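1st attempt posting a full record on here, be nice pls
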Amino acid sequence: MGETWRLIRGTGRPAENMALDLAMTWGVGEGRVPPTLRLYRWDPPAVSVGYAQRGAVALDLEACARAGLAVVRRPTGGRAVLHAGDLSYAVAVPRRGVWARLGVAATCRRIHEGVGAGLSRLGVRAEVVGPRPPQGVRRGDGAALCFAAVSSHEITVAGRKLVGSAQRRVPGAILQHGSIALAAERARLAALLPGDGGTALRVLEETMVSLAEILGRPPDPEAVGAAVSRGFAETFGIRLTEASWHPAERALAARLEGEWPAADDPFGSGADPFRYLSVPVDTPWCV
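the predicted structure (as tokens):
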């Protein structure tokens, strides 16, 4: 068994979850904490949008409010994800050693191999697809939704997307996080788009699949998390030790949560939360 990684599990508020992911990335990059796998859920349920996505354009924010859904901006890129029937993961690794030699696509694929290995322990025949142009989404047909397109290096089952992920790289660390669809929430998600959402729903029916549909029963989130943890340990030859947050991470996350930008505030205005790290940021990339 190789190096020891930290495992953190739990449930958080929407802005708190995003602030913790960012603080974790900072802690790993600074060398204060080891590489970390975080598995978490959202309370209350929420919709997250990509760091550069215009929430007010991509979503019907009034429909989100009527549905009781908070809308929060992610520090990574990508498109809108509904966090209600899902299990989220976040991985932070330092840009040193093997991780410094891997490019964006290779890093994404490697992390997805760990997630896929965990899902296979549940009997899921998941595949990390090879290089390919995005399929499934057309302009205006749910283009604001993460699960409406299947791109390179994503986790699919029978060609349909099971896990949506995004990645962000800073000089000291890499953050990748994503959403494992436990239940099918297509209609609920499509209803949050401007207009009637009918076309987006049809696209999601073609491109998205959930664990409940694959297994034929509602999955236990704890069992899914345990399987993913074991998949990571096997894939990377590491020891995962359940641990808590470093006090400095907690302090940074508390500050971030209190100032987290609104979903309809584009980061082009300078509201990128990575500004708190006082480091330049690489061009972000989403799976």
